[in-house]
Amino acid sequence: MVRRRGRIAEVHVAYIAISAAVTTAAAYIPMFPVIGAGSMMSAGMIVVPLVGILLGPTAGTLAVAIGAFLGQIVAPYGAIFGLITFLCPMTNAFVASLLAFRKWKEGICALGLTILMWYVITSIKWAGDPYASVRWYFPFLHLASFASLLIMRGKIGEWIEGLDPKKVPIGIFLSALAGLLAEHMVGNAIYVGIYSGPARVYAFVLSIYWIERLLGAIGATLVGTPLLIALYKARVEIGPWSLREG
Amino acid sequence: MSLVHYYPGDSFFHKLDPRVKMLWLACMFVLSFIFNHPLHLGVLFISVLFLWIYMKIPFSELKLFFKALTIVAIVTFFFQLLFYPGEHAIVSFSIPRWIPYFGGVTAITIEGLVNGIAMVLRLFIIVLTMPVITMSTSLEHLIISLIRMGMPYEIAFAATTALNLVPVLQSDALKIIDAQKARAFTALERGSFKDKIKAYVPLIVPLMVGSLKKGQQLEVAMESRAFGAYESRTYLTEIRMRSIDYVFAAFFVIITILCLALRILKGFGAFRL
Q1: Which of A182, A228, B54, B244 is the most buried (most CB within 10 A)?
Q2: Taking CB atoms and an 8 Å limit, are B208 and A50 in contact across chains?
Q3: Looking at this predicted complex, what is its ipTM?
Q4: What residues make up the domain containing B253?
């Protein structure tokens, strides 16, 4: 296949640069506080899965990786995992984009791998911790999302691509939620791995995280539905209807 | 005003090749992960602070970091202090079980205290090491070093363009908010929680549509200048590794491998009672 110059996975570098800039800028728009952490969830939570949905698995993930990495450089005090902090939003965009672009098997595998990583790391780090059993039921929403993806399969991508105003929101919600949960799982696994987060903390986080992630997915749906329809009508050459092959 | 805080200088660390600095960053990350004894982590932390002072980075920058990390550090410390499983109690007490989350905690242990200090030190080491590189290396050199390490030029271009566009988009976001306020849209400030979530729609949708329209214009501008016409390209600035760069690269790698070997074989850097 001849590679078109100036493009990565059929997306022009200009769109990747702009989307990376939007990802970085959105991190400066605060939304709601993270209970117990003393920080704020930003609009990046909404923007990241949407960038993945618009640009696709390769270009979208790359745009978010660049944007998140630049965010670490611009505001390094927010990068509590150091250089690898950008892996979390990158995973979010990757999973959401795979589902939106009808690569549902890869999307499900990616989400499943993040859940597996959580179980492996917590089994190692929490050996001997009397509260370690929380690890089994902590990712209840992640497992529910995984199950829903197994049921929905390629329908999510069909709904997003079809641009039916009644079905697009469901597709965006499910793919954004899967992305946000994958990001959450990667972040928690890194936190337990690097900072030895004790098991008991997660009993506390358990009652909060599902609210944050659902709110993020709802926000992505509320923003993403009019956005996708507006971009289609504006004839911007991105989105699953434009970029998906075959 | 540049978003990236770069402080040019004449120090030895400023003059090191950016690739060696990134190697140093990776080694510091690995070392902070290998050690869990506060003494060893303390030495790493002091070495990072020493670099900050040696490179004459303004104290206001360091203060900003400490201010931003204070709450995370306190939360991390207390979680370890109260919840880290340990056997050697310093203080014994009993929190009634009916108290949510904290109920049933019966002691503060030495293991919890030490691990709390260690994790806070690790947090500061991990967060403070990256800015040492970005504040001592110009963005141009940083990008060129990534290209020399194999990153495609398209990605480097996207990164520098994105960095230049962030202030433009932030300004656009403020204009959109003002335009919405001029239309009596105040949900972002005064609405209920549900209204505030919905309020992001008229902010983010125009921002993203406008940005992607800019992307279309940028695409045309790039294509009209034959972007990507040549497989290889030259650069105005070049970076070259000097012999001292190789020496320091080898030094960082040897120290890291040595510490890793000592940790595995002799428990060097591990906290044990």
Answers
A1: A182
A2: yes
A3: 0.88
A4: 12-137+243-266
- Residues B16 and B105 placed together within one structural domain of the fold: yes
Give the confidence band of B108 by pLDDT, cuts at 50, 70, 90: confident
Beta strands of chain B (E only): which ranges? 89-92, 107-109
Residue B123 counted as domain residue: yes
For residue B48, give the amino acid letter. Answer: V
Residues of chain B with Cβ-Cβ distance to A8 below 8 Å are: 152, 154-155
Using the Cβ of A9 and the Cβ atoms of chain B, whether some distance falls under 8 Å is answered with: no
- The verdict on B161 and B196 lying in the same domain is yes
Inspect the interface and report whether the beta carbons of B211 and A8 lie closer than 8 Å. no
Is the domain of B252 the same as that of B126?
Answer: yes
- Residue B6 covered by a domain: no
Residue with tokens 């260690």: B118
What are the phi and psi torsion angles at B89 (to 5°)? -75, 140
* Model confidence pLDDT, tens digit, residues B144-161: 998 998 889 899 999 989
| Cα–Cα distances in angstroms (integers) from residue A210 to residues A95, B113, B242, in the given order | 18, 30, 52
A26: which chain B residues are within 8 Å (Cβ-Cβ)? 204
Query: What pLDDT is attached to residue A246?
Result: 46
The whole-number pLDDT of residue A1 equals 45
Q: DSSP readout, A55-71?
A: H-HHHHHHHHHHHHHHH
- β-partners of residue A33 are A40
B90 and B133, same domain (yes or no)? yes
- Tell me whether A124 touches chain B (CB under 8 Å): no
Q: Give B87's DSSP letter.
A: S
Q: Flag whether residue A24 sits within 8 Å of chain B, measured between CB atoms.
A: yes
Domains contained in chain B, number: 2
Q: Residues B202, B91: one domain?
A: no
Q: Please indicate, yes or no, if residue B187 is contained in any of the structural domains.
A: yes
* Residue B165 in domain: yes
Q: Do A83 and B130 touch (CB under 8 A)?
A: yes
Measured in angstroms, the CA of B208 and the nearest CA of chain A are apart by 7
Ranges of residues in chain A whose predicted pLDDT is under 70: 1-4, 32-40, 244-246
Mark whether B130 and B248 lie in a shared domain: yes
